[in-house]
Amino acid sequence: MMTAASVTQLPSSPAAFKRRGVMLVLASPPGGGKTTITRELMRLDPQTVISVSATTRAKRPGEIEGQHYYFVSREKFQQMIASGEMLEYALVYNNNYYGTPKAPVEKALAEGRDVLFDIDWQGNRKLTEIAKDDVVSIFLLPPSWNDLEHRLHSRAQDSAEEIARRLSMAHDEISHYKEFQYVIVNNDLSESIRQVRGILDAERVKRTRLHNVQDFVDTLKPGK
């Protein structure tokens, strides 16, 4: 597991405990709502940052370099893999690479910030393999297959052929829900966001992520 710098300052109250950040993974089939929820969570919670992935796919209308993705060539992506700059990566649909640059994630975790990952089950599996204690994973299910189809068509971002390909892969992606710690049926966006925030709040106070708890406990004596 990646390690954080030691903390020496004694907290004045439990609320002041220093902690290591969380890798919060949100995954879903295409159109399942992971990107919308991830961005809304970051807007609502100043302790969170989004892990910006690198990809070899073409930029879509409205996407901004460095905000939505780092758009790189296939050759550049492969160079990043070879030099150990990627925390995880995957070849999706045997077509485009997606992956997470390592350095900014490690820095945020050590500073006690939570990093949100908008990735698929392959990325979650790799993150869990290398940093199990840091990862909190949530899989978002659609309320129905018809709803999933409607969401993909209503985005109007992909061709009919691309939508058909994404739908053909959705069954396989959904079958990996058992690899995740939490499952949410994304029927109502506000409720789904509330559930995700509740999971994150609970994970933030997990004893194994807090520093100097024993130092504080040692002060809890008569007369102290």
Can you tell me about this structure?
The protein has a domain at 14-52 and 112-217: 3-Layer(aba) Sandwich (Rossmann fold), CATH 3.40.50.300. The longest helix has 16 residues, at 189-204. It is globular. A hairpin with a 3-residue loop joins strand 5 (86-92) and strand 6 (96-101). The chain has a five-stranded parallel beta sheet, with helices on both faces. A four-stranded mixed beta sheet has the order 4-3-6-5. Mean pLDDT is 87; it is low at 1-8. With 224 residues, the chain is of the alpha/beta class. The chain is built from eight helices and nine strands.
Give the topology, please.
Layout (H helix, E strand, L loop, with lengths): L22 E5 L6 H11 L3 E3 L2 E3 L13 E3 L2 H9 L3 E7 L3 E6 H9 L3 E5 L2 H11 L3 E7 L3 H11 L4 H15 L7 E4 L3 H16 L8 H5 L7
Parallel strand pairs: 1-7, 1-8, 2-7, 3-4, 8-9
Antiparallel strand pairs: 3-6, 5-6
Give the overall shape: globular
The structure class reads: alpha/beta
Q: Per DSSP, what share of the residues sits in E-state strands of 2 or more residues?
A: 15-25%
CATH architectural designation of the domain at 14-52 and 112-217: 3-Layer(aba) Sandwich
Low-pLDDT ranges: 1-8
Under CATH, the topology of the domain at 14-52 and 112-217 is which?
Answer: Rossmann fold
**N/C terminus separation:** 36 Å
Q: How many β-strands, per DSSP?
A: 9
Please tally the helical runs, counting DSSP H or I stretches of 4 or more residues.
8
**Helix coverage percent:** 25-40%
- What order do the strands of the largest sheet run in, or round the barrel if closed? 2-7-1-8-9
Task: Report the CATH superfamily of the domain at 14-52 and 112-217.
Answer: P-loop containing nucleotide triphosphate hydrolases
Cα-atom Rg, whole angstroms?
Answer: 19 Å
Order of helices and strands: EHEEEHEEHEHEHHEHH
- The CATH class label of the domain at 14-52 and 112-217 is Alpha Beta
